[in-house]
Amino acid sequence: MLALLVSVDAHECRPGPALQRAPSLKIGVSPTELARPFDLRRIVRELIKARPRVLVDFEDDSGQTPFQARLASLQRNPDIEDVDARQDRKREIQRNKLIDKDEILSYMREYIGTFSRADAVKALYKVGGERVHEFDLSGLPRPIIDPDYLKGLQKVLWFEGLLKYVALPRLVFEADEGQGVMESNADGSAGQGQGNKILTVYASHLQLAEGSRCQLGLEGDRHRRRGAISFDQVIEECLNGLNVRIWNWFKADLCSDVILKSAKNARDLTLYSPGNNAVLKGWSSPEGLAKLEGLERVHIRVQEGLESPKRLEANVTAFKDALGKLRPDVKCTWEPHRPDSNYNAVFTNRNGENQPQVRPIPSVSKWAKAMGDFAEFLGSARPDPSVRPIKIAVIDDGIDMTLAHFANKIQVGESFYSLTGEMSGRRGAYFVPSGPHGTLMAKAICSVCPKVMFYIAQLEILPGPHGQRSFTAESAIEAIKWAVVQGVDIISMGWSINTSVKIPALHEALQAVEHARIIMFCASIDEGAKASDNAYPARASTSCMKIGACTVDGDKLSWVSEENSKFLLPGDAPISAAGDKDQWSPHRHLLAGSSVATARAAGLAAALLYCDRLIGAPRAKIFLPQSTNFTFQMGPGRGIRNHKEVDLLRSNDKITETFSGLSSGSNHKFPQLWQHLPDIQNLEWDSRAHPTDTNETKPTLDAFMRHLRTLRVGGGEELVQSSSTA
């Protein structure tokens, strides 16, 4: 079966003797038909319908699913990694065209679109090569949006050629500077000239990127205030050229002509009605929804209160009967829909009330200058391509990936935020952050080590007392597992869960982190020096380093428990979003505390790992246990290998020893990097343009890293001298 799915032979092929002798396979094809030349495409479709899990659970010897294997076999160079293909937009467009052209691949992808997100990702992509196949902007923290934000998303997101669904909120677009926001008139129509501006922005938004199509679903907000886009012409123009299959646009009494023009291939409709009998009759007329040839289901959400319950039920029943006579193959359902479940709540602000703590920015310190010089040197380095950036998982509230700081620095992301209400059963989008925290954490890491590649995991938020926010343990467990499977070098979590309840699943996930030798940092709880600290994740694993905040001079901040903090790093020098277009608020955000210190610790660890890669330091060969249950739920191709090579410095023990060595002379908890760094202001690392200068720099950097190794003890690993530092 797997061979048939992957086969790239011509349209016709003959079954082998064993298959000819086989009894009926119960897939809609008789043995007589199998004995003749048959259409491979039809057989594949029947096989998939009979055993859909084959697309997810079956893998070849190289760990490729049927979709991945067939795509690789059709590409000119089957050795090209899927993750590398994403780095070239032209190659990405060619990939999408290849899939569209091949009927089997195209059918596979469309069928996979009906799976859950986790299964669809596993079936379609190799680890690290994931693309966006659900474009959901619900949950943007404020209703006013800069068009440049949408354009920025188009530049940095890698879209699958076929999107499972697109969910668009009611947004107010900021016009050019000095023009304010685009607003509509009181009757819901746009002001003169404004409609075209809104249309242009949203049409660009929906078209997403060249080579991508929304072929499975579309959802939109029906509100018509302040430049929202619910009027019919805009809907038709926006959807022109898209192949929408699932329709759920939150607009009452939508004319069926709009759907016929905008989504002629729709198979699933969710419509909104106040019970208006004239509109219902229009929907069920021969010129209405019955003309949609591929229609399979119509679901009507009827607003209560405008008609008596008896008349409402009679009108809907008449609609179902009339449509049923014209299209008995279409399933019709309906349910009451109360106005108090406002459509506006579907696309709601998930941000908590608590704003980041603002503190004055202190003058430049020894620590800040040393780290600034170090980061500048690393950022200017131009090494051989084999020297790869450090992979860091930021497990937080998402990221605004349109900011210039993150250009070419975000590999992939996933959201573990479960949506509720109208969007129940779906997850959010990691590129639609629920607040500024995760974005500022990533920025803090970049400020210490620019040579990073981010893996973003968005957590589910729980509102707390006094406007504070926390995260659900379930989403944290999923995010940690995901980071392990992605093969990151460092996990940075600028938060903790303070609870007396034991969470066994979190213990298991953290054990996998330790076995994979991933460096892990989390934040101190910042609830006072004497506060009881039962916080996860550090509570579940001694190898997870809890970081507390101190001043730039190393003095512990008053709300931090030094006893419960493994190390102290500056957290009173806030991270600012100033200078960037801020998607959360017109005011600049400043963030201070142990979460900032945690991000800086992750950045420092990444900088040291990258130095080891620059000088080609020996690597350690580690063996991973096969007993981690969740590893193999995603299949051997996406799980952890039983052995791998990692940076010698890549372990919590060795980073702990290194940080402790750098901290000697203080309270042994504040790394004083400036006391150990060489004079790097005049050093240069450019392997291609300036190889002579690079050869002169290498001994200096090598001596620095050898010095750090003398600050720590340990060993016993099998070393591997390798030029590859992927």
UniProtKB/TrEMBL annotation:
Coiled coil: none annotated. One of its GO terms (molecular function) is serine-type endopeptidase activity. GO terms for biological process: proteolysis. It comes from the Eukaryota. Residues 390-609 form the Peptidase S8/S53 domain. It holds the Pfam family Peptidase_S8. This is Peptidase S8/S53 domain-containing protein. It comes from Magnaporthiopsis poae (strain ATCC 64411 / 73-15).
